[in-house]
């Protein structure tokens, strides 16, 4: 894989949201590969490069839903930010929750950004394109270890 291709780990269990986010990212300027995991356990296996994910490259950006099966996004975020090998990864919570406690707790856990998903398709596409533009084109990301 070329080094100019950015890898986005999308941790999302809703098939419709996965499809929409993938479509939105296809229409952007940045060259990116979207890797999807559908629950928190699978996401952590990917990030720890375990099992079927042995030797996969670490992502440049993690898009994380909070409400996930097996291990929820709050636990995933806490584990990422507590792990010396992963804590530098930018994590954007992309969720339907507007719960003030979820927002505050996510920032307490050092999330890089918290964004509420829109159920309005054009607005969701705009949100995803904005994430891609900022995090993959504008921001300077840390060097992968």
From TrEMBL:
This is Response regulator with CheY-like receiver domain and winged-helix DNA-binding domain. It holds the Pfam family Response_reg. PROSITE patterns: RESPONSE_REGULATORY (PS50110). It comes from Chamaesiphon minutus (strain ATCC 27169 / PCC 6605). InterPro entries: CheY-like_superfamily, Sig_transdc_resp-reg_receiver, TCS_response_regulator. The modification 4-aspartylphosphate is found at residue 65. One of its GO terms (molecular function) is DNA binding. Residues 7-132 form the Response regulatory domain. It comes from the Bacteria. Keywords: DNA-binding, Phosphoprotein. Gene3D superfamilies: 3.40.50.2300. SUPFAM superfamilies: CheY-like (SSF52172). GO terms for biological process: phosphorelay signal transduction system.
């Amino acid at each position: 894989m070329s080094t100019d291709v950015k890898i986005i780990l999308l941790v999302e269990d809703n098939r419709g949201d996965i499809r929409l986010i993938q479509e939105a990212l296809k229409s952007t300027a940045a060259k990116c590969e979207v890797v999807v995991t559908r629950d928190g356990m699978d996401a952590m296996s990917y990030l720890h490069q375990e099992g079927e994910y042995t030797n996969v490259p670490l992502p440049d950006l993690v898009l994380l839903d909070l409400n996930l099966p097996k291990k929820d996004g709050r636990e995933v975020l806490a584990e990422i930010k507590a792990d010396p090998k992963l804590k530098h990864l930018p994590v954007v919570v992309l969720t339907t929750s507007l719960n003030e406690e979820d927002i505050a707790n996510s920032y307490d856990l050092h999330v890089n950004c918290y964004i509420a998903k829109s159920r309005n398709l054009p607005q969701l596409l705009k949100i995803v394109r904005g994430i891609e533009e900022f995090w993959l084109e504008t921001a300077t990301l840390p060097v992968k270890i």
